[in-house]
Amino acid sequence: MEAPPRARRLRPGDPAAVRRLLTAVGVPTMAFDWTVTELLRGDDAIRARVEVGPADTWAPVLDAVLSVAPAAFGGPDRLRMVAGLARLRLAGVPPETVDIQVTVRDGELDVAVDDARGGTVARLDGLRYGSMDEAAGPAELVHELTWQPLESAPGAEARDLVLVGAEPAMLAALA
Questions:
Q1: Assigned domain for 61 exists
Q2: In Å, how far are 111, 139, 153 from 15, measured between CA atoms?
Q3: What CATH number did the domain enclosing 63 receive?
Q4: What is d(CA 90, CA 124) in angstroms, rounded to the nearest whole number?
Q5: How far apart are CA 147 and CA 81, in angstroms?
Q6: What is the bridge-based pairing of β-strands 87-90 and 45-51?
Q7: Which 3 state secondary structure label does DSSP give 108?
Q8: Which of 7, 14, 81, 80 is closest to 45 using CA atoms?
């Protein structure tokens, strides 16, 4: 795996380092069976080739992405959980092999996921992690989910809908 021009400052790393980091912070197993086969590291970036295998959904790829991404942070090992995401884009069917490029920008991560041919199949922009080692304030512990109806503007065109984790009954109701 060759680093793209924007990431030439990356140097080879041990592919097993991601699993060791996860084990060290209390995550001994993964939700899906994926393997980091190549790893390049830098001070503010990481690039990993990951074998995910055949999948009907994006879940295994996203599990790998969200597990590999925190390795781009420097400093001591910490258990980090996803705290926010500004934008997620997925294209086509999930590939069996992906190259995950993570760049740290102002404490947030931007992630590009390429297929084995180098085509970008996913982007996660503004990915934020919270450290499980830090105490959360009251405002961070209280959440409210409020569903609001979406009113269509007169004459507005229909927009595409992406349904993640579709359940058969929901698909039938939407058809």
A1: yes
A2: 18, 38, 50
A3: 3.10.129.110
A4: 9
A5: 25
A6: unpaired
A7: strand
A8: 7
Lowest-confidence segment of 3-12, 29-38, 97-106, 157-166 by average pLDDT = 3-12
Range of the domain at 167: 5-133+163-174
| Mean pLDDT of the residues in the chain | 84
Phi, psi of 149 (to 5 degrees): -65, 145
Other Cβ atoms closer than 10 A to 167: 9
Predicted pLDDT of residue 136: 58
Q: What are the φ and ψ backbone dihedral angles of 17, each rounded to 5 degrees?
A: -60, -35
Domain assignment present for residue 53? The answer is: yes
Alpha-carbon span 35 to 73, nearest angstrom: 20
Task: Give the pLDDT band of residue 4 (cuts 50, 70, 90).
Answer: very low
- Give per-residue pLDDT as tens, 88-126: 999 999 999 999 999 999 989 999 999 999 999 999 999
Is the pLDDT assigned to residue 145 strictly greater than 70?
no
How many separate domains does the chain show? 1
Separation between Cα atoms, residue 98 and residue 79, nearest integer Å? 24
Distance from chain centroid for Cα 13: 20
